[in-house]
Amino acid sequence: MTPDARRYKGAGFGGGRMAKPIYVLNGPNLNLLGAREPHIYGKTTLEQVRALCENRAAEFGRKVVFRQTNHEGELIDWVQEAREQASALVINPAGYGHTSVALLDALKTLSIPIVECHLSNPAVREQFRRHSFVSPAAAGVIQGFGPLSYELAVDSALRLTGAVRTA
Ligand code: CA2
After folding, report:
1. Is-catalytic flag, 41?
2. Please, what is the angle between helix 147-160 and helix 46-58, to 10°?
3. Is residue 79 classed exposed, middle or buried when 0-12, 13-18 and 19+ CB atoms within 10 A define those classes?
4. 33 CA to middle of ligand 1, Å?
5. How far is the CA of 138 from the centre of ligand 1 (A)?
6. 110 with 79: CB under 8 angstroms?
7. What does the pLDDT read at residue 4?
8. Architecture field, domain 3-9+18-160
9. Residues with CB under 6 A from ligand 1
10. Atom 7 (ligand 1): residue with closest C-alpha?
């Protein structure tokens, strides 16, 4: 078992040994997925991404809380909610990943595994996308695989909690 897996093992369970859901949070403009800039972000809609996440989590017997917001404060409120309510957090911070110290501050208060996720590969795009305020709080980053990034992120985050595939 890796040090990260040891650190987070059991994070998915509340007092009653009920597995908590995994939170998948999405930042600004991702509601436009599939409708705009398909050459960068593809044709899959955010609702379809939600289904991919739910299906992957179901293979571990886990549920997903999947949300999107265009508002920084709301995203931070949800991160704070995840502290108590989630077994793990997958976050595509979108533009806020490049700008938000407040988001990093919120993420650093969590003791559950955090996986940063991007559809595109910011490392091969504009210079300003190469810095992430989220990465220092994340166990890992998955980027560049389109919707598959989300599936891999859910899979990784759940494995870090010690979850095992049941289907
Ligand atoms: O590749 C990703 O997932 C990003 O997080 C997407 C962000 C971008 O700022 C990051 O550098 C990388 C932008 C999200 C905007 O989403 C749109 C979706 C469809 C059409 C227009 C924007």
Report:
1. yes
2. 30
3. buried
4. 8
5. 19
6. yes
7. 62
8. 3-Layer(aba) Sandwich (3.40)
9. 29-30, 32-33, 36-37, 41, 92, 94-95, 118-120, 122, 129
10. 94
- Calculate how far, in angstroms, residue 91's C-alpha sits from the geometric centre of ligand 1: 12
Select from 156, 40, 25, 35 the least CA-distant residue to 100: 25
The tokens for 87 are 């077994």
| Nearest atom within ligand 1 for CA of residue 117 | 3
- Count CB-CB contacts under 10 A for residue 54: 16
| Angle made by CA atoms 6, 134, 35, in degrees to the nearest 5 | 115
Catalytic residue selected from 8, 23, 41, 96: 41
**Burial class of residue 146, CB neighbours in 10 A (0-12, 13-18, 19+):** middle
What does the domain layout of the chain look like in residue ranges? Answer: 3-9+18-160
Q: Which two tokens stand for residue 101?
A: 């110290």
Atom of ligand 1 nearest to the CA of 93: 5
The average confidence (pLDDT) of the chain is 93
Residue 97 vs residues 11, 57, 92: alpha-carbon distances, Å: 25, 24, 8
Give residue-wise pLDDT tens across range 61-103: 999 999 999 999 999 999 999 999 999 999 999 999 999 999 9
